[in-house]
Specification:
The chain is an alpha/beta fold and about 750 residues long. About 30% of the residues lie in helices and about 15% in strands. The protein has five domains: about 70 residues, no CATH class; about 60 residues, Arc Repressor Mutant, subunit A (Orthogonal Bundle), CATH 1.10.10.2420; about 250 residues, HUPs (Rossmann fold, 3-Layer(aba) Sandwich); about 140 residues, Ribosomal Protein L25, Chain P; about 110 residues, Ribosomal Protein L25, Chain P, CATH 2.40.240.
Length: about 750
């Protein structure tokens, strides 16, 4: 086309413009229009071409307003060298003082940018040459000082406490945060269309009614961003859903919009009230409040009316093929595809009245999807009462039919879903346009997976049924209820999702990355306490308080004697322990320190080997927070030779030689149970037959749970409630389990203090 106007030989500049036009234009119907302007040399620069492409993208309907197009693209505008010289001179005059002070260290790009803003269609290279010339005239040639690199200004680093500031998000209002969620949700989110500009999205289908529908949509929403999180209420949310929650609620928040929580309750056979409750509870636990809580079933009447309209328009029909016949990508065409509209209307009414059994009739839509699937099902017969509508319906809509229409009803601007739904994008656009209703834009992103786990509902049910785990909230799983029970803070999960980011590619992450996020948050949130998992009794023979006879209780047959005081004796000392040693302004708690204390069995050895720094005969240690150093005087053993008690003396640390180590301890403690968790599966991909030929149930880690029944913890945690979190000094981060009861607390280890190098 260009050669017909310019002849066989094209210059390089014209060839480059033609190539860019063909490569960047998404809708080829306007290609000839743009080539004509390039061939006639009315579009001469890449800047003009970019403006032309944007204009075409923003005006999808024919015919284009030629005069408006030419104004928008600078056609016929000629910028003279004199205009460029005057514009650059004005900009340099404005910044003259800074230029003289900073000389060639001044940001010359600022001068060019301001000159370009005055002369939009001027050639960029000409402006740059003029800036260089006038700066040289003002400053003269570069000196040695000008050639030296400008020293970088060090950025102020936030204190650790500042990094972890978080708050509850309610659609858009967040109290404190370290960086915007839009910055965290990087990648694909930055390419999203603005509300009302759906037609600018690649692949979006524009019909003669599109612009009018978008205008009506904007009038209803006021240009507000609207997203939705649409879970099926037939299972518990998992870590992948946390990414979806953060993306949907976070993108709305970052753009001053709102997010709906919409239950996709179209399959009554598998839905239970406990799932509805748990889903909303988890959304709110992560710190989000939905703009509105809706259900697909809220719209059943409207969806049914639209199904009738679809049949009337010849776009849907009642089919009697069996489910087995239409499975897969190459099923035989339906012999009922071209049945008369009136017949399909009558049969669909019979479906609604229950005259067909389950599997005897479906309503199918007339389209072919991206993956080759033909005529997806819109309605099927199910004689199952619905938890909200009761026995009103015996036909229920499918995801392919329901999802886009519910988005349309709620005027969603960005329908964000994971990559496996990309094959349904064509049916999404097709159905809205077939009914002439507002059509949102579906955007797909890569889902988040974790190694060493399974998240499929069916597989988790199998784990529960076989007794491998207790329930959906077993702390070895990666459901959100399980993570909460294990003690993961919601902020850690949100931070993890933000670090993973939002990209088209699927993200498969190691669990230790999530654990690292938990450590960062818990280090700032979890107050310190002391606990002993394997207690060894230590009696301080010269304890600096009068000896009195105290009541004893022996816990466990054949177990080391554990002294439990009914109340703190006045003869015991009280030790102040900082809640957060790195920041003592956050307060202290009191811990009793008595003649009898308990230490970890592993903190004592009868012989101090090379490199061993803790307690041993002849090798004293300090007791954390007490100001005392203890020295072994006597080792007491049972008949089997096992050490059951140590007799020690104590010395004030300010007069004793500094010990090699300080160990934790408890005195007048509380008995508790501690549950220590490891990975549930042995292999990274337990569902991969090549890695685990015997199936995921054969890959269970026999050491995924170790229960310590007779651990001891200091009395400062006595009033803790389920899900309260602590750092047990030197042991890790722990959370109070809901199984706790009066007299016997239960703690779950969330993560160790440091990452196990073997897991990284």
């Amino acid at each position: 086309q260009a050669r017909s106007a310019l002849g066989p030989a094209l210059d390089k500049a014209t060839g480059t413009l033609l190539y860019n036009a063909a490569a960047r234009l998404k809708d080829p119907k306007h290609l000839g229009f743009l080539v004509g302007y390039i061939a006639r040399r009315e579009i001469l620069t890449d800047l003009q071409l970019s403006a032309a492409l944007e204009y075409v993208r923003s005006h999808p309907l024919e015919p284009l307003d030629v005069a408006d197009f030419e104004r928008a693209c600078g056609v016929g505008i000629c910028v003279t060298p004199e205009q460029i010289e005057e514009a650059v001179e004005a900009v340099i005059s404005k910044h003259r003082a800074e230029l003289l002070a900073e000389r060639y260290h001044f940001n010359m790009g600022l001068l060019m940018g301001e000159a370009r803003s005055q002369l939009r269609w001027a050639d960029g290279k000409t402006i740059k040459n003029e800036v260089d010339l006038q700066v040289l005239h003002l400053l003269g040639p570069k000196t040695e000082a000008d050639l030296e690199k400008k020293p970088k200004v060090a950025k102020a680093r936030l204190a650790p406490a500042e990094k972890q500031k978080v708050a509850v998000v309610e659609n858009g209002d967040m109290g404190t945060e370290t960086r915007s969620l839009l910055e965290q949700l990087r990648g694909e989110a930055l390419k999203f269309h603005k509300p009302g500009e759906n037609y600018k999205t690649e692949g979006y289908v524009v019909t003669p009614n599109t612009m009018a529908l978008l205008k009506e949509h904007l009038a209803i929403t006021g240009g507000q961003v609207r997203t939705r999180f649409p879970p099926e209420p037939n299972g518990i949310l998992h870590i992948g859903h946390a990414k979806a929650i953060n993306f949907n609620f976070g993108y709305a928040k970052a753009n001053g919009g709102v997010c709906f929580l919409r239950y996709d309750d179209t399959n009554p056979e598998k839905e239970e009230e406990k799932y509805f409750t748990a889903i909303r509870e988890m959304v709110e636990w992560l710190g989000y409040q939905p703009y509105a809580v809706t259900h697909a079933s809220d719209y059943f009447d409207q969806l049914y009316t639209w199904a009738l309209e679809l049949i009337r328009r010849g776009q849907a029909y009642v089919c009697h093929q069996k489910v087995e016949e239409i499975k897969g990508h190459n099923p035989p065409p339906s012999p009922w595809r071209n049945r008369p509209v009136e017949e399909s209307l009558l049969l669909f009414e019979d479906m609604r009245k229950g005259k067909f059994g389950e599997g005897e009739a479906t309503l199918r839509m007339k389209l072919v999807m991206e993956d080759g699937k033909m005529d997806p099902v819109a309605y099927r017969v199910k004689f199952t009462p619905h938890h909200r509508t009761g026995d009103k319906w015996c036909i229920y809509p499918t995801y392919d039919y329901t999802h886009c229409l519910c988005d349309s009803i709620e005027h969603i601007t960005h329908s964000l879903c994971t990559k496996e739904f990309q094959a349904r994008r064509s049916s999404y656009f097709w159905l809205c346009n077939a009914l002439d209703v507002y059509c949102p834009v579906q955007w797909e992103y890569g889902r988040l997976n974790l190694l060493y786990t399974v998240v499929s509902k069916r597989k988790i049910i199998r784990l529960v049924e076989t007794g491998a785990v207790r329930d959906w909230d077993d702390p070895r799983l990666f459901t959100l209820t399980a993570l909460r029970r294990r003690g993961f803070p919601p902020e850690a999960i949100n931070n993890f999702c933000a670090r993973v980011g939002v990209t088209v590619a699927q993200a498969t992450m190691e669990p230790h990355l999530l654990e690292a996020c938990a450590r960062e948050v818990l280090n700032e949130q979890a107050p310190r306490a002391m606990a002993v998992l394997e207690p060894l009794k230590v009696t301080i023979t010269n304890f600096p308080a009068p000896k009195v006879r105290l009541p004893w209780a022996v816990v466990g047959a054949g177990f080391l004697e554990i002294s439990i005081h009914t109340q703190c004796s006045p003869q015991a000392l009280e030790v102040l322990v900082p809640n957060f040693p790195a920041d003592e302004s956050r307060g202290f708690h009191k811990v009793p320190f008595h003649q009898t204390v308990y230490i970890e069995e592993t903190d004592f050895r009868e012989e101090a080997e090379k490199g061993y720094k803790r307690l041993a005969p002849g090798q004293p240690v300090g007791l954390r927070h007490t100001g005392y150093v203890i020295t072994v005087q006597n080792v007491i053993k049972d008949v089997s030779g096992r050490v059951i008690e140590l007799e020690v003396t104590c010395t004030k640390s300010d007069v004793a030689e500094k010990p090699k180590a300080f160990i934790h301890w408890v005195s007048v403690p509380l008995a508790c149970e501690v549950r220590l968790y490891e990975r549930l599966f042995l292999h990274k991909n337990p569902e991969d037959p090549s890695e685990v030929p015997g199936g995921f149930l054969s890959d269970l880690n026999p050491d995924s749970l170790r229960v310590v029944h007779n651990a001891l913890v200091d009395s400062s945690v006595r009033s803790a409630r389920p899900f309260d979190k602590f750092q047990f000094e030197r042991l890790g981060y722990f959370s109070v389990d809901p199984d706790s009861e009066e007299g016997k607390m239960v703690f779950n280890r969330t993560v160790t203090l440091k990452e196990d190098p073997g897991k990284a």
